[in-house]
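Comment thread on ticket #2218

A.B. wrote:
> Attaching the input chain for the structure job we discussed in standup.
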Amino acid sequence: MSDQRKPPSLEDVGARLKAAQDAVAGKKTAERNTQEASQGAGIGFRIGIELVAGVLFGAGLGWFIDSKFDTKPIFMLACIALGFAASVLNVIRVLKNLDHSVGLGRAMREKETGHKDNLRPPPSPKGFEDDDD
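C.D. wrote:
> Ran it. Output below, let me know if you need it in another format.
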């Protein structure tokens, strides 16, 4: 009484293989969507932190200068305005993809090339090539 099992048919094996491939593809798609969403949230947090940090640094620097020279709101207001302006310029730089070494610029470059070890400098804008060499 040997219990010999009949091997599965090729259609059955093909159907099981297709189901497994679909499951793996579905997981990869879900992971990719989650990763893209987390990158977007990270950039949003970075922008918010840079805006707040610039204003707080300007306020602190202005308060310090005002306390040393006894000129109460003048330098504080000026440094807050300068800190806000610097923060806005930094946010614009990040959003325009000019931040090539870290953050969004690096992520976009990695996405375009397909690997993370791309450490080459960004291409120079048209009209700024250095032909003196």
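A.B. wrote:
> Thanks. Noting for the ticket: The mean pLDDT is 82.
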